[in-house]
Amino acid sequence: MKQKLQSVRGMNDILPGEALRWEWLEALVAKCLCGYGYLPVQTPIVEPTPLFSRAIGAVTDIVEKEMYSFSDALNGEPLTLRPEGTAGCVRAVIQHGLANQHTLRLYYMGAMFRHERPQKGRYRQFHQIGAEAFGFPGPDVDAEQILLLARLWQELDLSLTLNINSLGQPEERARHRQDLIAYLEKYETSLDEDARRRLYSNPLRIFDSKNPTTQAICADAPELPAYLGKESHAHFAGVTRILNDEGVSFTVNPRMVRGLDYYNLTVFEWLTNDLGAQGTVAAGGRYDGLVEQLGGKPTPACGFAIGMERLLELILQNDAAGNGAPDIYVVHQGEGTGERTTRLAFQAAEQLRDTGYRVILHCGGGSFKSQMKKADASGATCAILIGEDEASAASVLVKPLRDKEREQELVRLADLAYFLSTHFA
Ligand code: HAM
Fold it and tell me: CA 46, 49, 50, 56 torsion: positive or negative?
């Protein structure tokens, strides 16, 4: 028997109903980003492997074990499917000199690839919408990005919690790292295997350990904020001041570490408890050294990425909009070939689409009853019914589908858009 062909584990199809929801969400996020002056950019899915090892860090989990890397069949060049979008975006900015004279706000959306163990909310092909701002050294742009996300959650009617931290500057982190290693070395034999492995390569990540003994050891370990200098503290205070002014609540989590090495100063994560273990919906921070590190002119930068699958799952759980349902379903049936009623139905549907409604015009005939079943199943807010009587009066019957208490009403075609905007806004 032939083996059934399946998609690769952790890489999912997005089927029509769902794909509609994706498009809706992408458009909504893009609108929000444009409202803050971000412009779209697209970069390749495949990049030279050294880009990621240099940007993300050679001893991170992503680079050590999660990249889909291969050699170009012709010239042997080491290539990798992008595991995130920042590195490629920075490469493009340097390559085209985009940030040389100007400040720059860019956003992108697309598939990323990480060879992780798939589970709910964690996939091998997943999608991010990311934003990166270049050329802004102050705390204002860090805060602005957090505010942008807060506005997005508000629009989506989601409540997420914000954790922020300052990672200071590389020299400050180096001093902390030295003391942290010295502290952890005292307990080396009691640390779990993973923590021992990370002791010299990435000791900050040991704070992430779920092992109770390691956690207990970490409880008294030196914390980074004590090592930050005046300027780092001032930058962080600048960010928190704006967040406080704008009424965005946050928790300062001095143990927050990110899985990518390029960050300095502000880092942040937006979290939910409603998605199980994979609760980080969006995350980012400042990365002032990266442009120079990848060969560009020194350029401060700050950005974030939203995990699309996680955000969509949260929206679905929250039963927010974006389920792809139309606003209106037009039902029509007339005598004979139904010419009069069909013409009116087309007229009504087109007129409503002109004013921005999403309309499904019933096609294929059938009784009023069977058409109404389809209207109900479509998820539309209301149905518009057109029979011979309505056609004679150049009117339609507006029937609410969700609010069953509400009466149906006869509305003249000429008044229809206005009626709907006042009764079903
Ligand atoms: P990240 O924290 O690695 O940061 O990923 C950002 C978001 O992508 C996560 O919070 C999560 O929602 C989603 N995500 C990550 N891995 C997976 C996965 N395997 N399955 C599903 N969703 C996932 C970055 O990638 C940085 N480039 C963000 C950034 C932009 N920092 C500055 N600029």
Answer: positive
